[in-house]
Amino acid sequence: MNNFLTVVSASIAVVLAIIASLPLLKPNHQLLSWRSPMADLVVKNAKIYTSDESLPFADSMAVRSGRVLRVGNYSSIKDMVGDGTKELDLTGKIVVPGFIDSHVHLISGGLQMARVELRGVSQKDEFVRRVKEAVRNANQGSWILGGGWNNDLWGGELPMASWVDDITPSNPVWLSRMDGHMGLANSVALKLAGITTSSEDPNGGTIVRFTSGEPTGLLIDSAMKLLLLSIPEVSVEERREALSRASNHALMRGVTTVVDVGRYFPGASVKLSWEDFSDVYKWADSSGKMMIRVCLFFPLETWLQLHNLITKVGHTMSQWIYLGGVKAFADGSLGSNSALFYEPYADEPHNYGLQVIDNESLLNLTLASDRVGLQVAIHAIGDRANDLILDMYESVFSTNGVRDRRFRIEHAQHLSPETPARFGKLGIVASVQPEHLLDDAESATKKLGIDRAQKGSYLFRSLLASNGQLAFGSDWPVADINPLGGIKTAMKRIPPGWDIAWIPSETLSLNDALKAYTLSAARACFLDNDLGSLSPGKLADFVILSRDSWDDVVVEGSASIEATYVGGVQAYP
Predict the structure, then answer these.
(1) Which of 70, 122, 218, 499 is the most exposed place for a label (fewest CB within 10 A)?
(2) d(CA 255, CA 518)
């Protein structure tokens, strides 16, 4: 026994001697990283609105490798600060998740930024002056393109080719209305396109005429196709520059993700969205030129092409590009008197609007898209158009069975009293644009009458109260990309020149409006696992606002963008 104890004691002495001879280990954060990963960025001393109900507000956030690592108070995050961590002290400023604009025509908007800008023009003389200035800088024979005009701003009179014919004798002109459902061509353009007194109106469109039958120059919805085919295609380089311009503009407004429904309007070729995908988006992604995230929707008629692509590459092509679904049109727009209603327009007693695709075709295309799991979004503005789409969606659900579809109606501007409840019952996303109501408050009253306009227009609160899902957007370039403006409009609903709200019963709280631009918008396009809230594991897209008082924003609904971060990296300014 004594010999055994002697051997053990000697062995212990040898081990202790070996340990004593080893160099002392200094604390190393990398060795401890399994406990607390070191952050690339820590935002502190902020008022962080997370859009996550489990922790609505925080004062600090840690980011690593482009994703949120932890959110909370600084004491819970400071152990993630290492030698390589950048700390951003915001001195109490408000931080919100990066805004998601749920409906844009991104490349169209970028192209429009370099064309004749008629948004906000309130006089005929100014309209003509801007076209004249463009002609002065153009080559003879080249197209003068632009848009954004709103005839309601100068009293309602619709423009005619004669407004610009004298100043454009050698240049064809095409100027789209702000809503994209009507445009003005000059006489040179009409002649090039072969549009004459004897031309017939296409299905789903109208050639506006004088009583003599001669075209005025205005084309509505699918009639625009008669002229658009004559306009030279935009070059690849122009479209790539347009994406860059548009992305920078979005970042300036705090938008980090958009749902891009493409250069697809009634009368436009279904090929344009696919050409932009191949020539612009794939190129930008592979060459490191993407600045914002995009969820792409393609024309419904091309559902099989999209299905084949998703089968091959999946929905998520990269951190920048997500293949969303397919989109179609049910009707036109209020401003062009082509939105489809149950009752006629007050200013056109025989006009109920236009249905731009027949029910059977729309149903069959939607059924086919749904069978292969594609998300479907359909433009509907008038009350009858919205009910037609809800009926059709219900038929699809009954035929194809139950699943998580998140089908969408884009715009949902004018609804029958019982319709909001149907959105909630069927689980349909209402993809709406608050800023549109600023333009429509006056015109809806003129076109629909006070009673119809008051009862059925922009029913945001009614949709939410019926368990409908709201996703906010701009429809840029129809209206500007401006989530902060959209939030204030949804809260206040006060049009320009008004002292009181338009339909105050439909105003939203700041929280509901923010959700519609963040988490709800992410859910509406199946991106809520990665976007929409500042939650651990999600992408670190966030915006720093100019305000440091949440209460002031709640009351006033106003702030400005100080900085925009995408994946934890400052992208603006």
Answers:
(1) 499
(2) 10
